[in-house]
Structure formats: structure tokens, C-alpha cells
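During the second year of the project, the team shifted from modelling isolated chains to modelling whole assemblies. The rationale, set out in the original proposal, was that interfaces cannot be judged from single-chain predictions alone. As a representative example for this report, we include one of the complexes processed in the last quarter. Its constituent sequences, exactly as entered into the pipeline, are reproduced here:
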Amino acid sequence: MLQAASKLLRARVARLLVWALALIPLAAFALGLRAADFQDLAAVLNMLGRLTGVLGLAFLLLSAALSARVPGFDIPFGGLTRLWHTHHLLGAAALALLMAHPLLLAFSAQVHGEGLAFATLFPPLSDIATWSGWVALLMMMIFLAPTFSFFGKPDYERWKRLHKVAVLAVVISLVHTALFSRSLPYWTDLIVWTLFAGMALGAVLWRFVFSRRVGRLPYTVADVRRPANNVVELTLEPRRRPLKYKAGNFVYMTPFDHDLENGHGEEHPYTLSSSPLESNLRMAIKDLGNASRALQSIKTGARVTVEGPYGRFFKTPDRVDKPELWVSGGIGVTPFLARMRHLAALEAGGDIRFIYCVQDEARALYLLELQALAGRIPGCKLVPHYFYREGPLSQTFLRENCGDIDQREAYICGPQPLNRLVQAHLRALSVPRRAIHTEEFELL
Amino acid sequence: MKKTLFALFVAFWASVATIAALQALSNGLAVGTPDDEALPGFTMAEVAEHDSLDSCWKVIEGKVYDFTDYIPRHPTPPRVMEVWCGREATEAMRTKGIGRDHSPAAWAMMRPYLIGEVVEE
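Output from the structure prediction step:
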């Protein structure tokens, strides 16, 4: 318990440390402050305008640095989905600050004379420094608008393509800062921004250059099974070295098959459903979008690449140290399937209560295999929950099927409404927050 | 968070639009142009006597400014401005030494320091 708590705490501290890195430019900025910066309203507004610019750029570059997706790098932060949550928050903070930045500077200028706010925002076109700032900010709005659903929920592929504008926005924002120079005092300007730009551009380089050569492992589709009419389970055979991973990890898989209706050369995240002891990879893919729909008809022999592993869902994937409660919904069964296959292969046992939420029996994916696995794993009990019969999962159902619920490590994987519902129930049933672990497969 | 960010996004464009609208409604008033009132005349020789941080005069586009009180407020260390004291400094104002003009606000901020204009010997 203590060890688990300290691990969680470390992940939180690691994520906080990323934010704390922004203290470096903040400290440099503070070093350059003078009494004159607080002398009157215009000076204070100007100082705040520069400060929001400095912090906004710092958050933007830190967010970019976190986008690298280097396998293993996400573990100290509590898994890739958590790390991306931080990436997401940093991006939001950067946009908020960078929108305030030009306005504060314009308001400050207005104090010195009429029309100066306008002249500050819209100088002659020859003022490349200011206009590059505008271009970078507009680009941020373009690539972040779908992320934060400004104009409705976007299509995944379009969102992903638009998000690549971020690279250009980062580069242009650096040009903007360099042209203005002296955003930070003395030599700190060059050192701090070089360091931050190095992290951000290093991440971009990894993502778009090195990961394609080093990080992606070639596989061949060796078998295609169909556990339901909208789900396929692919078996992938390594063409070079096999991926090393833990049960419950996910990967980015890119199919290279021109016969696919959609998604040739597009990467998407999928949870591995195989035990790491197997020589091949298995992944169950539900028809949830254009690319995953196309994959339903992928043929054996097709070539794919696999990048990963990512995620840190289970704290002890290879054993069950203390009683566990699992709740899955829909295709969220995959990490649990992987863990059960793995525990069975290891001939390990442990106190596991698995609440398996499905609409009805017909949609209970892998039910027969799960029942067989539960029979082979000593201490593992599978409890199906059928929505059409019992309605939404209730606290009573959880209590009745899991009396010592507050003594268990709880793992939840399923659609967001179920995820939220179960978390609320568990909190109400006095399960400590640190004992609740979730894997969100809706990454947007 | 999405809602907050969207609210800020709307507020940003509303503010930019307001600034633009006010500009359009103000009949395009000239920005920070000094009034054409008669100013005391100084020769370059007189200006050259004020070449230190204790008394720093500069000539910018034919006008004489006394920046002595302003230097502590300037974003750079004082020595950056000091080298231009007592001299024709239009180039410094136009290029900042890095090829970049000062902002319209900076040009407007000079006005309170205007003390005269340059006259021939």
C-alpha cells in the first residue's frame, strides 16, 4: 500500500516537475525586473505583457517537449495518457497566456497616446517581429481549436494532421522571440531559450525522424480472428526483434496495406491483448472510426509497424500482491484480457474480482475465454454485469459482489461515462483515490 | 477547461475587434506626432555638452530630447543609451543596434522629454 502510494506520488511529483521547469525562465525574468517596471500602470501592464509572453512560450515549448512519445519515458509520469494530460494542460495554459500577451502590451502602449494600442497590435507589415508573433498565435489557435473542441468534436485524423501545425508554430514563436531579443535579461535570454527550444525540437526530431527508423518495429499479420462482428483480434509476428512490454501496455500500430479502405500508413493506439510471454503480439481492435473499421478486413500477410510500449496501467502486471478490483466496459476489456492471459501463462494466482460490464450476452467479448481463464487463475472471480438486465452499474452491485471493496486496488478501463460512474461509486464506497487506476482510451 | 479556454478565445477576439473599432472611429488620428508649436533652438555644440548620464541630451529627427530622467526606465542597461548622449541618435532610435525600429509606443513615450529643436550655428 505504502509502496503504491509512493509510486503514485512520484508520478505526480514528476508531472509537477515539468511545470516547475517554467520557473527557470520565470526566475530569469525576475532577475531583469527593475523598480521602473512597477512605476505606473503602463509599466506594470508592459511588464505583465512581457511576462505572459515568456511564460506562454515556456509552457508551449515544454508541452512540445512532452509530445515525443519516447517508449519508457512515460513510466515515471504514470503512463502516456497521464503524461499527455500534462501536455494538454500545458498547451491550454500557453494559449491562454499568449492570448493575454499582445493585449497587455497593446493596453500598456495606449497609456502613452491615442491609437497606440492599435499601432502595437497592427504595425506596418515590415515589422516582421510583431507579425511573426501574430502568425505563431494564429497557428496555435488553428491547431488547438479542435483539441479543445472550439467548433465541435473533430475527426481524429483531421485533428492529428492539424496538430502538426504545432511544429511550425513553435519554430515561428522562437523566431518572434529571437527578433525581439532581450525577452530575458543579459545572457539568460540565449541560454534559457536555447535549452527550452532544444528540448522541444529534440522531441519533434525524435517523433518525426528517429522514431520512424529506430522506434518502429516491423511485424506481419499472421492471423486474424473475429471475436465479434465489429471486433478483430490480430496476431502479429515480428520480422525483426520482438517488442518487450508488460501486460496492459498499449502501442501505436501503423498498417502498410494499400488494400485497406482507410488508414494506410496512419498510426493509431491499440492495447495489446497478448501475454508478454507469447512470441507474437495480439491486439483486439473494435470498429470505432474509419481506420479501425478498415482494419476489420485486413488480411494475413499484411505488413505493419509497432511503436511502444506505452502506458502504466497495472502496478504489478506480473503478480497480484494485494486484492484487486477490475471494472471493464466494451473494448476496455483488452488490458484485463492481456493480464489474465499473462497470469494464466505464469500459473500465477491472486485475489481478483473482475466486474465485466456489457450491454447483453451477445456483446460479451471473449466471455468464454475469460471464464476459462478465471477458472485457471486461482482466486480470480469473473462477474458479468448486463446493462439491459441490471441498468447502469450501481454501488449496490459493486458492494454485493465485492464486500471488501475499500481494501482493493481498483482498475477501470472503458468508455468515459462508465469510467466516471465507477470512479464516483468507488469514492462513495470509501476507496482511496490513490487506489483507483484508470486507463482512458479516448485520447482526445 | 474547454469552456474557460473558449471563453478566453472569444474575449481575445472581442478585445482585438474593440481596439480595431476604436481606431476606425477615431478618424485615424495621427500617432504621437508632436504639435507644431515653436520650440527653443539648440545648436549641435550645445547638445554635445550634455553627453553623460548626469545630463543626457539627444537629437532625434531634428528634435532635441533630454533623456536624463528616462534612462533608469529604459529596458536596457544605462550604458546602451549613454553612448548616444550629446549626439545625433536617430539611428539608435530607428535600429536599436539590431536593425529593428522602436515601437510606436516608444516613439510616443519620447514626447514628454522633448526640449527643443536643432538650429544652425
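The CA atoms of residues 3 and 9 of chain B lie 10 Å apart. Chain B has a mean pLDDT of 86.
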